């Protein structure tokens, strides 16, 4: 008899994530909408400058992409758990498409353009938090979820590199409003992919006692209180936020640093890209080469050492050494792959949408704050000292936070240690 052919091996790693049909729809929607957002940011900045001739208002257009994140993420976070995820995602995409479409109307004043920019930015953390929580339904709460989140982060980093280049090319052949039209199309395509490519699931708040009653604002603020009131969840969230706040200093000061070392104009682009390149490379390696157990093992050591490459700026390095330091600092962000798993394990299902919306909002806010503080410090100290100082202060703060995360690890604290009544509510499953 002819022996049976061996069954084909199940896909592993990133291939296993792409084998999930729903994730492919989410991935494609993310890629389309993200490229559209990057292009629209560049085009809207040019449009505002063309209309006003004001560098301040042009720069403010970029800043407004960060400032409303915490407001939207705090006040509207309850949406992520109160309504079915697919409905929230589609409505967010359609709302953003409508806002961008109004930007195309020639009669829209500059104040209106900036207000619409704020609205799109306020919707973004709700969309992202809902999608992060929905991934646990699509991919489960284990390794597939972690790798799926990793892929979306890689896309985000790559889109920044590709999107600004694509936007620049588009603006050579289209007017700013013509380029913004592309964003309307990408939002509509994203909405269609999510509507027809993912399953309709019930609202998450029905899974427990974390929501479902009261006003949306009350649910959102209550969710923030419950999430931040839990010592373990709070420590993990800060471990996402704190290193990100300090690592943005060299990017915020890339232009003055390039000028200070007498680098050619092309150096600015290299300084802005180096960290993203390091991040993408490290994330791909950790996600594909390390087991879930080893990814968990490296979280705290890599987080603790991630900002150390910035200390090279003490010696005011030339372009090659600065680029190497930035790439290494970007690679340090790979610790978040293991941290993703810890976070989803720590947050109860009924609070997951609100927790992840708050996580996203806070991450964008602290990065904006970090850039602003770095710029302020550079008014009083040389740029290279500011970047090195960010590395030193950030490392000290991260080491203290690592000790807190280690102290809240399961098995190292009782169910009630360091928690109040609200905390006990969060940890009940």
Describe the structure.
The chain is mainly α. The protein has two domains: 15-196, MFS general substrate transporter like domains (Growth Hormone, Chain: A, Up-down Bundle), CATH 1.20.1250; 224-408, MFS general substrate transporter like domains (Growth Hormone, Chain: A). Helices cover 75% and strands 0% of the residues. The protein contains 21 helices and no strands. The chain has helices at residues 14-18, 21-52, 55-63, 68-75, 79-82, 85-103, 110-139, 143-173, 176-197, 216-229, 231-247, 249-252, 254-260, 266-289, 292-297, 299-305, 319-331, 336-346, 352-377, 383-407, 421-427. Helix 4 (68-75) runs antiparallel to helix 19 and helix 7 (110-139) crosses helix 19. The chain is globular, with a radius of gyration of 22 Å. The N and C termini lie far apart (54 Å). The relative contact order is 0.14. The model is unreliable at 1-10, 207-212 and 414-429 (pLDDT under 50).
């Amino acid at each position: 008899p002819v022996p049976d052919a061996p069954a084909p091996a199940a896909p592993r790693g990133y291939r296993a994530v792409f084998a999930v049909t729903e994730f492919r729809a989410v991935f494609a929607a993310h890629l389309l909408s993200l490229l559209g957002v990057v292009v629209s940011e560049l085009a809207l900045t040019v449009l505002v400058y063309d209309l006003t001739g004001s560098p301040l208002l042009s720069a403010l257009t970029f800043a407004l992409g960060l400032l409303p994140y915490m407001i939207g993420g705090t006040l509207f976070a309850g949406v992520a758990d109160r309504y079915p995820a697919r409905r929230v995602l589609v409505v967010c995409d359609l709302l953003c498409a409508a806002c961008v479409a109004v930007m195309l109307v020639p009669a829209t004043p500059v104040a209106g353009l900036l207000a619409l920019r704020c609205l799109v930015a306020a919707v973004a953390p709700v969309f992202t938090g809902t999608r992060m929580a929905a991934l646990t339904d699509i991919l489960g709460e284990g390794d597939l979820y972690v790798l799926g989140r990793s892929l979306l982060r890689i896309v985000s980093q790559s889109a920044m590199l590709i999107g600004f280049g694509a936007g620049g090319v588009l603006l050579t052949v289209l007017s700013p409003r013509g380029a913004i039209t592309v964003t309307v199309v990408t939002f509509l395509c994203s909405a269609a992919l999510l509507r027809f490519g993912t399953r309709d699931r019930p609202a998450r708040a029905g899974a427990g006692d974390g929501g479902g009653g009261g006003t949306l604002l009350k649910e959102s603020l209550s969710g923030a209180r419950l999430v931040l009131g839990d010592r373990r969840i709070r420590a993990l969230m800060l471990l996402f936020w704190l290193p990100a706040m300090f690592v943005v200093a060299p990017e915020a000061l890339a232009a003055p640093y390039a000028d200070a070392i007498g680098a050619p104009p092309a150096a600015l682009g290299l300084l802005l890209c180096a960290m993203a390149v390091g991040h993408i490379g490290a994330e791909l390696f950790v996600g594909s080469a390390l087991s879930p157990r080893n990814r968990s093992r490296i979280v705290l050591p890599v987080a603790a050492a991630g900002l150390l490459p910035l200390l090279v700026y003490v010696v005011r390095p030339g372009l090659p050494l600065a680029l190497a330091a930035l790439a290494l600092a970007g690679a340090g962000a790979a610790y978040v792959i293991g941290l993703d798993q810890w976070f989803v394990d720590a947050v109860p299902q009924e609070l997951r949408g609100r927790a992840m919306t708050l996580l996203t909002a806070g991450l964008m806010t602290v990065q904006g704050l970090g850039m602003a503080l770095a710029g302020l410090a550079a008014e009083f100290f040389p740029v290279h000292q500011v970047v090195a100082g960010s590395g030193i202060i950030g490392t000290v703060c991260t080491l203290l936070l690592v000790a807190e995360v280690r102290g809240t690890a399961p098995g190292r604290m009782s169910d009630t240690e360091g928690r109040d009544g609200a905390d006990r509510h969060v940890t009940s499953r």
